[in-house]
Automatic annotation (TrEMBL):
Subunit and interaction comment: Homodimer.
MF annotations from Gene Ontology: asparagine-tRNA ligase activity
Family: Belongs to the class-II aminoacyl-tRNA synthetase family.
Name this polypeptide is given: Asparagine--tRNA ligase
Enzyme Commission no: 6.1.1.22
Superkingdom as given in the UniProt entry: Bacteria
Domain Aminoacyl-transfer RNA synthetases class-II family profile: 136-454
Keywords: Aminoacyl-tRNA synthetase, ATP-binding, Cytoplasm, Ligase, Nucleotide-binding, Protein biosynthesis
Amino acid sequence: MPDSRTKIAELLRSTAPGTDVVVKGWVRTKRGNKNVAFIAVNDGSIIHNIQIVADVARFDDSLLKKITTGSCIKVEGRLVESLGSGQPVEVQAERIELYGTADPETYPLQKKGHTLEFLREIAYLRPRTNTFGAVLRIRHAMAYAIHKYFNDRGFFYLHTPLITGSDAEGAGAMFQVTTLDLNNVPKNDAGEVDYAQDFFGKPCNLTVSGQLEGELGALALSQIYTFGPTFRAENSNTPRHLAEFWMIEPEMAFYELEDNMELAEDFLKYLIRYALENCADDLAFLAKMYDGELLERLRFVVENDFVRLDYTEGIEILEKSGEKFEFPVSWGLDLQSEHERYLVERHFKKPVILINYPKEIKAFYMKQNEDGKTVRAMDVLFPKIGEIIGGSQREENLDKLRARVDELGIPQKDIWWYLDTRRWGSAPHSGFGLGFERLLLFVTGMANIRDVIPFPRTPKSAEF
């Protein structure tokens, strides 16, 4: 049977009061007097509540007493113009059914301010708050917009494996996947773990990136994108790190670095414009509660062309800035967030795409420039957050790629399949990665990455 209720988002947009409606949701507050009870109900479809007006004389007193903050109710009644300010319509209740009670002595989300730290401890309930309802609706809107953007431009959605035998980033911080008995690990004659007895017959891990497999798809389908969970076993307890997060990684055959930059800029502007046009109420709430400059910063990205800046020139700007940075600046070092934000917020006052990084600080698969020192890498830098996208043109030359792999000590036997794509029908190609939660930090104005994912996974924390 279809749901008989009307969502609150639809009721608040209604231009036809005087109709009979059914509302279902969770009680945010209840107030009133001996004659009338005013019950604010929210069903998650919109940040705003709808007011239920109940004539006390028409309802059993024991029922009304059980309707407290957090309880779940069904209301049948008439939609009428609201006499109070703040919303155009309200519902005059004719029947109320109590689905589930919430003991006010134990329900933790009473009508008062709660710290974000406290809400992380009850992540199973925090979606019921205004803040996390807004964040999760924006998260959905951004996920939809990502799929729509790529679909409308002829990209194919490729599902890359979560369990892998390769380390795309060469970082080594990977979660191991095994079915071996950890209380009785089998060993071979050399005293090493006998992976021949493991499920896959070899060491395997949770993926840190779908990029390498994504390249294989691009070298057949021309344009693909991945969008799925990735994992990093870094012991980082910071507001910017998660052990489990989502990544968007497009890969495009026949794209060189300039094409890659054009796509990244257009993609980001599309997503932020989509948020501004489709998440206005939630963004307004978050701007009011957490970040007064949020809307201005979102418009800043949409309204400005991104600067293309060579890494070497960027280092020169930073060295001549006269700023006393916490981290040193010199050619050959990776930039820190403070350096990236200086370039964006103070020097150019525009988003920046930094290109042509030293090869020593970038991954093995990036295309080498003719100077022998740099690679065709690109990082997109945003205000407040620094790097939001990292990407590159990929090395399509087999000999150069093999030489770089050997230089870094990566066993060719582990990525033989990747090397083979350069052996048969190789082509220029490029791609980039966008951390979904990093995007959401920027779009929502939240300060901690644990507050833009429903159930954050961090060191010593895997609850819910």
